Every structure is written in structure tokens, then in C-alpha cells.
Amino acid sequence: MNQQGQQPPTTSTSRAHDHLRPSRLNLLWWRIQQQRRAFVLSGVLLAVLAVLGLFIHHVALRGWHHHALAGHNLNHGLGSYSPIPVKRIVVRGQAITPLPAIMGCLHTHEGADMLAFSVEEARHCIDGLPFVAHTVVERHLPGTIIVTVTEHHPVALWQFKHHYRYINEDGALISERDLHALHLHDLTPRTLGDNGPAGPSVPLPLLVGAGANDDAGHIVQVLAAHPTINQHVRALVRVGQRRWNLELRSGTVVMLPEGHEDAAMARLELYQKRMALLDRPLKRVDMRLPDRMVLGLPPQTAAQAIDPAEATAPVPGANPASRSKPSSHRDPKPSARASAQPNQAKMAHKQEKPHHPAPPATGEAPQ
């Protein structure tokens, strides 16, 4: 309306717009159609989800039933299987460790279930036994158990400061627990066998002196390689913590060179075979020189002296030039040799002390 309160004139443009505008009834019907379409889509989506859920539930239920049936069959199979019996138990490397102690650590026996045997528990138990250094336990199907034992063998009896101690190949002392396990706590010279104290036995060498245990493995192996010498040896004495003397059962002392014990024993073994040197009443045999030896004679046997030419027999591997030279203890006058030998032996006897012989004529410092 204008200011005068009259209606504005209706134009043709406004009439056209009024004709294009939808009526209220049309708008209501359009809204109803939109809601119906939304409900239909929601119903279809819910139906699809319901079908999918039923399918997943069916598959899961079927799989669970399958696994349950498989587990039942497995339990039934395990419960009805026949055990694999132990047919044989093999123990290797055992020498001084009691066999019943090893068998007790296995916790099994012939005829028992093979799968119930624990390899780890058996190995740990055997490693804790006396004299056992390392153990390998193997289970071989269908019915064999193999036990391989590596032992610390007592190789010698060491006497130091009036005490006896068993030592192994490394020179380490055998513990009191291990000694009591084999009933060796008395610590007196005795024998140990390949199968324990009750089996075949061999004598353990006796080592004497400070530092004798440090070189025990080497000197015991060298002595064992010369059985002709070994049977005459009563003890091996360490001198100055660097070389060895052999004390024989006859009382003779054999002085070995430092670091060349094997070669010296080979020469001594040759002399024993040629002239029965170790069976003669000698006080000292000095073998510290590679091409000769010096003999010390007791005064009561000086008249029965060994011929120097026999004592200086050619040594295998020695320098011929050095053998051609007369040794320092040979008398250049054969006519006076017999009368001079008793006096020389008497003088040597006055100068000698046990285990500390006088130096040879070559000027070598005493060891």
C-alpha cells in the first residue's frame, strides 16, 4: 500500500511469479515422498546388514565346530598313542666318575618313555658331578640315549710343604668335594684306575717342589711316552721352578735339561737299552748337556766304574764334531785312570748334597 492507503497496481510480471510458485499441498506431498524414500533405503540397508551378520555368524560357528572337532581328535590321538621305549643308553668318556651317578642323573631307564626324557635336565645334573668338565646328552630316535662325558683326570700327586694334593692336567687342585666323592680324602700316594678306584689301576706320578703343578701336564705326558724310564721313577722334583730332576727307585738322581725333557729321556732310554744304565749303582746322572752326560759314582762302587768310552757312546742326532772331542771327565792317561777314579769319586761325594749336585766340569751354573 502506498501512503494514501491504496493497493499498488498488479503488474504482469508478479502474476507470472505467483503462477510458478508451488502450492502448500504440493510442498507437503514432496516432503512425504522424501521421507518414504529414506525409510525404504534404511530398510534395505538394515536387511543387507542382517543377512551379512547371519552369514558371518554361520561361518564362525562352522569354523569353531571344525576346530573343536580337530582338537578333540588331537586329544584323542595323543591320549591313545603308544609310548616310544628307551632301548639303549650309551655312556662315553667316563673313566673315574661312578657310572651309577651318571645313570641317576638321567632319571630314565630302559623301557621308559623316550619322549618323557629331558635332555637339558640330564646334562645340567651330570655337569655338577665331581671330575666332570663338560657333558653332551643326545636323544636318537627311535630309542637310544647317548651321553658323552669329558672329565678332569687326576694326573699326578703333588707334594709341597709336607702336604699332598691331587692335580689335573692343567695343574689345578682337585677340590675336597671331589676327593670325598671318590674316597680320596686321605691324600696319600695311591693309584687310580681307568674305571675308578676299583678298576684296572696305573700309578700316579709324584711331583715334588714349588711350581711343580704348573708344568704337570707336560712332564707327565713326556714321562708316559718313555715307559722304560717311567718304571724306574719314584718322583719328579721341580728345581728352581724351571727344570726337573728324576728321582729313581734306586736312589739315583737324573738331572734333565730345561725345556728339552723329551730329548733327554730318549737318550736315557737308549742308554738303558744299551748298557742298563739305570740298573747300576749311580749317585747322579747329569744330562743337561745335549751331547754328553756326567756320572756321579758312590765311593763304595767307584772301583766298578763304568768305562768312559761306554758312557760317551754316540748320541743320536748329536754333532759329530762335538762327539770327537774328549769330555771333561775323561782321563787322557789310561794307565792312571783306574787309580785316580776312587779318589775323584770320594772328593765328589764330599761336595754333593741331596738334590743340589755340584756343577759339571763344563762350568754350567748349578740349577
From TrEMBL:
<keyword id="KW-1003">Cell membrane</keyword>
<feature type="domain" description="POTRA">
    <location>
        <begin position="84"/>
        <end position="152"/>
    </location>
</feature>
<comment type="similarity">
    <text>Belongs to the FtsQ/DivIB family. FtsQ subfamily.</text>
</comment>
<dbReference type="InterPro" id="IPR045335">
    <property type="entry name" value="FtsQ_C_sf"/>
</dbReference>
<comment type="function">
    <text>Essential cell division protein.</text>
</comment>
<dbReference type="Pfam" id="PF08478">
    <property type="entry name" value="POTRA_1"/>
</dbReference>
<feature type="transmembrane region" description="Helical">
    <location>
        <begin position="38"/>
        <end position="60"/>
    </location>
</feature>
<dbReference type="InterPro" id="IPR034746">
    <property type="entry name" value="POTRA"/>
</dbReference>
<dbReference type="GO" id="GO:0005886">
    <property type="term" value="C:plasma membrane"/>
</dbReference>
<keyword id="KW-0131">Cell cycle</keyword>
<dbReference type="InterPro" id="IPR013685">
    <property type="entry name" value="POTRA_FtsQ_type"/>
</dbReference>
<dbReference type="Pfam" id="PF03799">
    <property type="entry name" value="FtsQ_DivIB_C"/>
</dbReference>
<feature type="region of interest" description="Disordered">
    <location>
        <begin position="311"/>
        <end position="367"/>
    </location>
</feature>
<protein>
    <recommendedName>
        <fullName>Cell division protein FtsQ</fullName>
    </recommendedName>
</protein>
<dbReference type="InterPro" id="IPR005548">
    <property type="entry name" value="Cell_div_FtsQ/DivIB_C"/>
</dbReference>
<dbReference type="GO" id="GO:0032153">
    <property type="term" value="C:cell division site"/>
</dbReference>
<keyword id="KW-1133">Transmembrane helix</keyword>
<dbReference type="GO" id="GO:0043093">
    <property type="term" value="P:FtsZ-dependent cytokinesis"/>
</dbReference>
<keyword id="KW-0472">Membrane</keyword>
<keyword id="KW-0812">Transmembrane</keyword>
<keyword id="KW-0132">Cell division</keyword>
<dbReference type="InterPro" id="IPR026579">
    <property type="entry name" value="FtsQ"/>
</dbReference>
<keyword id="KW-0997">Cell inner membrane</keyword>
<dbReference type="GO" id="GO:0090529">
    <property type="term" value="P:cell septum assembly"/>
</dbReference>
